[in-house]
Amino acid sequence: MTQTLPPPFDPELAAALGVIHEMLPPFTLDSLAEARGGGAVAGPTDDELRRDGAFTVTERVVPGLGDDPDITLLICTPTAAAGTLGCVYHTHGGGMVIGDRRTGVDGMLDWAAQFGLVVVSVEYRLAPETPHPGPIDDCYAGLLWTAAHADELGFDPARLIVAGGSAGGGLAAALALRARDEGGPELLGQMLMCPMLDDRSDTPSAVQMDGLGVWDRQANLMGWSALLGDRRGGPEVSPYAAPARAADLSGLPPAFIDVGSAETFRDEDVAYATRIWQAGGRAELHVWPGGFHGFDMMAPAAAISQDARAARVRWLNRLFS
Amino acid sequence: MRLAALDADAGAALRVIAYFDSLTETRAGLQAIVRGAAVLAGCAARLDDHGRRVHVRVDAEGNAAPAPESVDALWMRTLLVPDGSAVLALERTGEPGPVEAMILERAAGAARAVLDRTRGRAPAADPALVELAVDASAPSDVRDQAVHQLNLAVAGVRAVALPTGPALLPPGVVPSWARAGIGPAVVPAELPASYAAARVALRFAADGTPEDPGPTVVRHDELGALAVLADLPAGADVPDLHRLEHATTAAPWALSTLYAYADAASLRAAATALRLHHSTLQDRITQAAHLLGWPITTPAGRLRLQVALTLRRLRRHP
């Protein structure tokens, strides 16, 4: 394709980007240890998760798939919710290579408080130490356990959604595919926030934004290589690793997909929503102009970030009401 | 990014500079600028442009709070325009620290650029509201509502009398009108009284021209007992005014010389103000005193001169 100018960043996001670049760890395989230990990706503490008693926080160690090691689930239950609870099963982001079960849970708690949801966040093993299918297997094992223990956790299994951002969005999309294919839990919805879906990373947006913004093409290729090794970009990649590879996107739970116009994932995320519609499915797509990857989390105060969060809440409101 | 994590070090200041430079470069709007100030400072921030009736308020989380609460005179603030009709404030009291000062300076610079760009389209302040606020005959609740609509419901506000009509001066703001009388600081309910005093003060304010030398902005607070001169009936015959008129007609330089002499702390200071050699000034003073018909170098004579000059100004500005 002809190299074209990238879309400009939103003014507020552009101003924040300078600070973000100072604070974000560099994304290379060599510097992973540093990135994993850095404070920039630290999740909330138990005390922060409790939100002055609004939630109880527990952890459960549950079996992995087959002979896989046990996995830990972080479970936050609203203490004051009236009526039937739902559940948001959360797969954290971090390019498949960093983050833990606490990463991004804050945002889940906002929804949980508003809609009466139990939050379950899974500690899946990370690449490159654990390549595909280890991470998605861990996520799926946790989903199976969660759905099977709905009574014990106190939620209505008909009100179970999966949600994740970035790599977590890709994992959530993969969970929906796998639950469909393997007769797993019925999901009420899938919340895919700027999801990482396509290991080929060769769309116009991936090329256009190379070297720009957050999580550019080089970082993305690093993440996929960590997960897939030599299989990345080849013919044999499983849709449970890279949901964009799924040939059939019919029969999926309603999807919410959002993405920035100025990020690597724009075109693969737009394509995923489009293919869901073409397959006769339900999807809501938001493309936020001038948004870089993860803008609403990294620059939460910006007007466009507020709007992006509000759009998710409105979708959840329609889903749960 | 948690910009609130910024601390008061040099790096934080550099980030503040880069942040607002970027907003200006990308022509971000006023709300983005005020939001930047709020988020960077970790407290609500607001821009109140009374002239253009632009009010933007954003809380520390970046949410627009479109119904501004009343202002606190002790907030950290900076003026966007010299006359104080547009103010950018952080809703935090006390002396600004280095980062807060940097935020105010940079956000004000960015906001000024936006206001300048959009000035032509901005609506003017509603003079009717200001007139209501200072109108003693208006019911107090109507006045109160007007003050709130002007976003000036704050103790320490002053009424200002301009040749064109009333204006209001928020606390802590330096006026820069061409000619104005400024009333005492009051609670909003007492603005009519402040305005009455401001109108008296305006009569003491000169045009600042060779024909009307004198202070152009006069505070009623500073008039003291001189204020009673304003009560002199317009038709009262004051012989000293005739003598002053005679002197200024006879010698074109007399008025400015007499005013400079009456107003200055010393002969030398007056000479400096007039850009004259002090011996030249000495000669002129002798000549002017002769034209006036009374000595002006004695304390009593100088007071008589000052009163005559003041009465002349009051007659020019009835």
From TrEMBL, chain A:
A molecular-function term among this protein's GO annotations: hydrolase activity
Signal peptide boundaries: none
Keyword entries, A-Z: Hydrolase
Top-level taxonomic group: Bacteria
The keyword Hydrolase is annotated on this UniProt entry: yes
PANTHER family: AB HYDROLASE SUPERFAMILY PROTEIN C4A8.06C, ALPHA_BETA HYDROLASE FOLD-3 DOMAIN-CONTAINING PROTEIN-RELATED
Protein name: Esterase
Species: Paractinoplanes toevensis
Organism placement in taxonomy: Bacteria, Bacillati, Actinomycetota, Actinomycetes, Micromonosporales
UniProtKB/TrEMBL annotation, chain B:
Gene3D superfamilies attached to this UniProt entry: PucR C-terminal helix-turn-helix domain
Source organism of the structure: Paractinoplanes toevensis
Residues annotated as domain PucR C-terminal helix-turn-helix: 255-310
InterPro entries the UniProt entry points to: CdaR-like_regulators, PucR_C-HTH_dom, PucR_C-HTH_sf
Domain of life: Bacteria
Protein name: PucR C-terminal helix-turn-helix domain-containing protein
